[in-house]
Amino acid sequence: MYVTASLETREALSSGWQGMKVLYQRYDSLMDYGRQNLSAQEKRELDALQRDICLQEFDLVESPSLRIQKFVHIGDNSKRHECDALVNIARKSKPQLSALTGRFQCERIVPGERRIKLVMGGPMMVNHAGGIMENAGLCLHPHAGIPYIPGSAVKGVARHAMWCEWADAMDQDDHELAGSLALKIAAVFGFPSNDKSLDGFCEKQWPEKFGKDGRLATFAGLVAFMPAMPLEYVELVTDICNCHHADYYKGKQEPWDNERPNPQFFPAVEKNSMFEFVIRPVIRMKYALTGFPELSEEALLSFAEEAVRLAAEDFGFGSKTSNGYGWFYDDSQAVAQMELLQAEQLQERAKEAALEAMSDEEREVYNWKKLDDGEFSGLLNTLPDLSESQQRSLLEILFTERAALWNTLKKAKKGKQLARLEKVQAAGTLLGVTLP
Question: If we measure between CA atoms, which residue out of 372, 380, 374 comes closest to residue 420?
Fold first, then answer.
C-alpha cells in the first residue's frame, strides 16, 4: 500500500495544481482524525503523503529564499531538515548565485558615499528572517536568494555603537566629548532616538534645536545606510548549538551533567566571507546642515563610517554575537585582491555587453582577432570566398595587428605561403588597397 500511495502521489503531483489540491485535502482529512486514531493502512498513506509532498516536490526548488519562506518539512527533526535543504539548494545553485551576487551590489556611485569592505571573522546569522523559519535568523535577499545584512540592521548596530561611546564619555564626565558625540548621533541617525538619556541630554544642551518647539524636534538622519551585500558567493552551512541543561534552566533540577543535549539547528553564513557596507549622504544633506553649523558633510560621513566599523568589529551583526558570531575585521590584503577581481569582472561584463551589441560581421572580425597565427594563416586561404567588406577587414588585421605575419608572408617564394601571398595581393588589387 505504501508503494501504491507513493505512485499515486507522484501522478497527482505531475497533473498540476488540481492534483496537488486533492492530495493536500486528503492529507488534511487524515490529520483531522489524529495519527493515533488511524488504521495501519491510513498511517502508511499519511507517511507517503508527507514524504512525497514535502520532499520530492521541494527538490525542484532552486531559490534559497523561496525555499526558506514558502515551504516547510513535516516530520521528525524538521528544523535540521530545513537547514540542510537550504544549504543544499544554495550549493546546487552556486553558479547562478555567484552571478547574482555581483548584480545586486551597489554599483551606482553617489557623490560623497563611503564604501567599507570587511571580512567576516566568524559565522553570521542575521536575526531578521521572515517566513516559516522564524527563529532561523538568516536574512536572504527575496529576489537573489543571497545572504545580506539589511540597511536597518547596519544603522541600528552602528547607532548603538556610537551611543556606547557617548555613554562612556558621560561616565567619565567628559561633557565636551559627550556633546560632540550626541550632536553627531542626532545629525546622522535622526532625533528623537527613543533613548531617554540621550534625548534628554540633547534637549538640555540645545533646546533651540531639539526642544519641544525646536526646529529639529523631529528630525530624520542625514546619512543613508545601504544593505551590506557580499562581494562574492558566500557559503551557507548548518550550524548547531546545544543546551545541555534544559531541566536546570526550567528549575527542575541542579546541573548534574546527566541530561540529554537538546540540539538546535540553524543556517549560518560561513566565516571569511567579505561584505561591502555602503553609506551615502541623503539628498537634502546640504540644506539640512544649516541646522548644524558646527558640522560639515565630510565630518558626518566620517563619523558614520567610524560607526559602521566600530559596529562590525566590536559588536557584530545578527544573533549570538556574544558567542563570536557576526563580527568583522579589516583585511587590507584581502580587500585589495577582491578589488582586483571585481575590476576584472567589470571588464569582462563590459566585453560581454560590447560583444552582444555587435553586428554579425563585427562579431566575426572580433573572433578573427582572437585566432593564433596558424589559424589566421589558414583563414587567408578563404579570401576569394569572402565579401569585399570581409576581405577589407581581414587585410586590415593582417597589415596592423599581424604585421609580423605579413612581413614573413611577403617573402614567400613557394608552396602554401606563396599561394596565400598571391591571394592577398589579388584581394588588395580588387579593393584598391596598397600593400605595405
Answer: 380
**CB–CB of 159/192 below 8 Å?**
no
Helix (H, G, I), strand (E, B) or coil at 38: coil
The model's pLDDT over 220-249, given as tens digits with 9 standing for 90+, comes to 899 999 999 998 888 888 888 777 777 787
Nearest to 90 by CA among 29, 133, 138: 138
> Is the model's pLDDT at 179 over the cut of 80?
yes
Query: What DSSP assignment string belongs to 331-342?
Result: -HHHHHHHHHHH
Per-residue model confidence as pLDDT tens digits over 301-355: 999 999 999 999 999 887 778 778 888 998 888 888 888 887 887 788 788 888 8
Residue 130's pLDDT band, with cuts at 50, 70 and 90, is: very low
| Measured distance CA(303)–CA(221) in Å, rounded | 13
**Cell numbers linked to 262:** 537538546
Under DSSP, the state recorded for 386 is: S
pLDDT in tens, 11-35: 555 555 566 677 778 878 888 888 7
Residue that the C-alpha cell 551590489 belongs to: 105
Helices 175-189 & 196-205 angle (0-180, nearest 10): 110
How far is CA 415 from each of CA 114, 359, 363, 409, 421, rounded to the nearest angstrom?
A: 65, 36, 32, 11, 10
Per the listing, cell 548565485 goes with: 97
In angstroms, the CA 168 to CA 149 distance is 27
- Provide CB contacts within 8 A for 355, sequence distance 6+: 363, 366
- pLDDT at residue 172 in the model: 94
Report the pLDDT averaged over residues 250-279: 83
Beta bridge partners, 114, equal: 279
Q: Cα(209)–Cα(217) distance, rounded to whole angstroms?
A: 7
Is-contact 6 51, C-beta < 8 A?
A: yes
Q: Which segments of 206-346 are extended strands (E)?
A: 219-220, 223-225, 229-230, 236-243, 262-269, 274-281, 328-329
Query: What residue has cell string 584581502?
Result: 334
Cβ atoms of 72 and 55 within 8 Å: the answer is no
70 compared with 234, residue with greater pLDDT: 234
Global pTM reads 0.68
CA distances, 43 to each of 51, 76, 226, 342 (Å)? 12, 15, 51, 55
